[in-house]
Design brief:
This protein is of the alpha/beta class. The protein has 7 helices and 14 strands. The strands form 2 sheets. The protein has a 7-stranded mixed β-sheet. Strands 7-8-9-10-11-12-13 form a 7-stranded mixed β-sheet. It is globular. The relative contact order is 0.17.
Length: about 260
Amino acid sequence: MKIHHLRNATIVLEAGGKRILVDPMLGPRGSQGPLAFFRHKRQRNPTVELPENSEQILADLDAALISHCRYGHVDHFDEAGNDLLRDRSLPVYCHSKDVKFLQNKGLRTEPITPHQPRDFFDGEITAFHAVHGHGVVGKLMGPGVGYLIKLPNEPSIYLSGDTVLTNEVKHVLTAHKPDIALVHAGSASLDVGRPILMTMKELLEFMRLAPGQVVANHMEALNHCPTTRAQLHEEAQKAGLDDKLVTPEDGETVELSR
């Protein structure tokens, strides 16, 4: 299995002879407004360009996977991402509640209902709820999911989606025991309220619970995500967890096995 990391949460997952684009944010640097104005440095997003090899990474795709997209989550599905999916007529696997929204964008959808496994190429995929914040904020952020993917002769992989550390996330790690767990690790927060992604403490707990390697992304690309790769490695090392942590750079490909 290979993970080709583009930027933020956008990756191409290569497994089972298929190439699957996840959470496409493909617009140029600064094409979106800031996501926080006071708590974090006010910058337009994305704060970095796509890597130089992005066209190569985005070649020959078989499908796409979106964790959440409504209510303004353009850091996971932006206009440029929509254009690519529509122009290539790729099947887009998504939360069943997002089907109408994406169909109105001209996309071919493949709905996935949480906790109901469905066929995914020669294997299966199961969606699990992702809670993008605490209390009322988490509800206002709209429906989101993470995905557990199992393909023949490949390690199983759990993509957390945008979520804080919930009992459901813990259950996926401890009961389903994915060989690889990918976590959105930027610890994003808005100008008010608690973080809307896992804090450093939660990220370390996620790593402790994960039975295999942990790939961390969703860092150093948005103005409201303060956690950096270096900070995460530093804290993981203190906790004795750094040997299982991978933080790919933009444009980097990592190859993973059981």
